[in-house]
Amino acid sequence: MRRPSPSPPAARGPALAAAAAVVVLLPSIFPAIFTPLGRAFPSLFSEWNVPKPMHESLLNEALRRTISNKQKRELWSPLPYQGWKPCLKSSSVHGVPLEPTGYIQVFLDGGLNQQRMGICDAVAVAKILNATLVIPHLEVNPVWKDTSSFEEIFDVDHFINTLKAEVSIVKVLPKEFSWSTREYYGTGIRATRIKTAPVHASASWYLENVSPILQSYGIAAIAPFSHRLAFDDLPVDIQHLRCKVNFQALVFLPHIISLGETLVKRLRSPVQGQSGELIQEVGEDTNQAGKYAVLHLRFDKDMAAHSACDFGGGRAERLALAKYRQVIWQGRVLNSQLTDEELRNLGRCPLTPEEIGLLLAALGFDSRTRIYLASHKVYGGEARISSLRKLFPLMEDKRSLASEEELTNVEGKASVLAALDYYISMHSDIFISASPGNMHNALMAHRTFENMKTIRPNMALLGRIFVNKSMEWLEFQEAVQAGHKGRYGQIRLRKPKQSIYTYPAPDCMCQG
């Protein structure tokens, strides 16, 4: 057990406090001196050092790469029809109950895409219980500090009208239940709150444990509610209903769609240089003209700390991430017991911006590729993505494409910004995510449903390749291309226990 650090003698306390105050104030008192020092010695003033490229030799060779027109045509050609199509027909036998058994409330945590899955499950649970669903409450995300509500992201009227033939949904509770609020359930144990719903609970669990509360009180609030409904052994109608919610009922608000359409149009327009010449008028023979790819760069501090990998930021970064990991995850990151090389060999390290850039270059994306960067906040800022930007100088994001005025209604709202990224991603020619996660899974499913090209990075292969520091570019390129055959959006049928929100076939799709 670590002993607590001894307190300084009382007589020295004021002196130490005064000295500490001076150190803290010095940069603000003498900015002309300390700002250059901060740039020269960032480890003194920041947790993060600008890292050198972790794969400098590959990066230098990638910057000189040449890509054949044949490879470009193959990369940008759309997916052929795979024999599966959307299939969301519901049985008319199980319509809306004439007398719902009561009201169901759910409180959803996580980011936008985790909440999206929770919304689908909430509708399904309401159907199982013959209950009326109250529009789900979205919790404040502890990482993004976002307070966006369901009504600030999704079109509520469309949501209710799309599902009205199957599930009763209301915007607010009637007056006799107005006491049933998030604040009410946060102040003590309440008979109407269910806290014990197991992960991936069965339909029978809800009938046995929630129905009696509905019958007794007319209302039941379920929290937590992330991943609280099983993916297997459910009626076909319930599975189809989850798909219908995900792919038809959840539509973003008009102002989000309008801004998304504007940015998509700009991404598809030729790029002009400062003197007005076209610098991105790619030849028609490559099928790349007017097209763009979306890169979801999931590289925030929370993700970096949870992965327990080394990302090249030096000792200051390792210490900062270790501290964050201990405070936020409180020792629950089991991977922290493995070395960085072991983690990489197992494919458990998210790709850095540099590594995802090398992957894209090896797959055939060139310096004229229009890439939209879908990301909330990159850990390390612009310096961290400098290598990626060198490889793809035409890379854009929300703030480079839109004006400050256009972003007024979405700025500072992480979930609304994520919704904008989702919309732009769904309209891209190619989507690729730097690491698995909720947005990766949600978009992979949605694009599979629409038969759109989505590249799945082979994390285990890439981890092993990047550990090999002696690999040259041609060998790297061949290994990457061979390891990604069949990973461009080909249909993969859902296996038992796998998520319907990642693998929509066969539950949401039919052959024919």
Would you mind describing this structure in some detail?
- This protein is an alpha/beta fold and 512 residues long.
- The protein has two domains: 285 residues, 3-Layer(aba) Sandwich (Rossmann fold), CATH 3.40.50; 147 residues.
- Helix 6 links the parallel strand 2 and strand 3.
Pick out its properties.
disordered N terminus, 12 strands, 6-stranded parallel β-sheet, about 500 residues, alpha/beta, Rossmann fold, 4-stranded parallel β-sheet
Mean pLDDT: 86
Uncertain segments of ≥5 residues (pLDDT<50)?
Answer: 1-45
CATH class designation of the largest domain: Alpha Beta
The number of domains is 2
Describe the SSE topology.
Elements: H1 13-29, H2 31-40, H3 42-45, H4 56-62, H5 69-76, E1 84-86, E2 103-108, H6 112-129, E3 132-134, E4 137-138, H7 156-163, E5 169-170, H8 182-185, E6 193-194, H9 203-209, H10 211-217, E7 219-222, H11 236-249, H12 254-268, E8 293-296, H13 301-307, H14 314-329, H15 340-345, H16 353-363, E9 371-374, H17 381-384, H18 386-391, H19 398-401, H20 414-426, E10 430-433, H21 438-449, E11 454-455, H22 459-467, H23 473-483, E12 509-511
Parallel strand pairs: 2-3, 2-4, 2-7, 3-5, 6-7, 8-9, 8-10, 10-11
Antiparallel strand pairs: 1-12
Helix pairs in contact: 1-2, 6-11, 7-11, 12-20, 13-14, 16-23
